[in-house]
Design goal:
By secondary structure, this protein is mainly beta. The protein has no helices and twelve strands.
Length: 129
């Protein structure tokens, strides 16, 4: 595998016991991963550093993308084109993004209202406390 990262997707803020299904182009990466910030026993947020701990990294290797997620990896066939199609089901609601990696290979998602996702994109890695 190459050391050069093609993209990184971080699930960032406002998630609380949400179920996510994450797909790149037509390649399913993971299903029903529950994300959360840290809450105390009363349900109040205890720790929020803006990052859920879920990061997906993609590396281009020959004619496929090597995906690393936590301790797992997957291979996805590259669909040539300008955009990387990310489909994220948040609690069953589909969110589809055509991401132009020329605008930045670091992608972050915050949870919005009604199971929507807000996209952030940068040429530099996101920083968390």
């Amino acid at each position: 595998m190459q050391d050069t990262i093609m993209f990184q997707v971080d699930f960032q803020d406002f998630f609380r016991e949400d179920i996510i299904i994450f797909t790149i182009d037509d390649c399913r990466i993971f299903e029903k991963t529950v994300t959360s910030n840290i809450y105390d026993e009363s349900g109040d947020m205890f720790i929020n550093n803006g990052f859920t701990g879920i990061a997906i990294m993609g590396f281009k290797v020959e004619d496929y993308i090597e995906i690393q997620f936590e301790e797992e990896s997957a291979r996805c066939k590259i669909i040539e084109g300008k955009y990387l199609k990310l489909t994220i089901f948040l609690n069953g609601t589909p969110n589809v993004f055509n991401v132009d990696l020329s605008k930045g290979k670091y992608i972050g998602f915050d949870k919005g209202e009604s199971n929507s996702l807000l996209l952030h994109q940068s040429g530099y890695p996101f920083e968390y406390e």
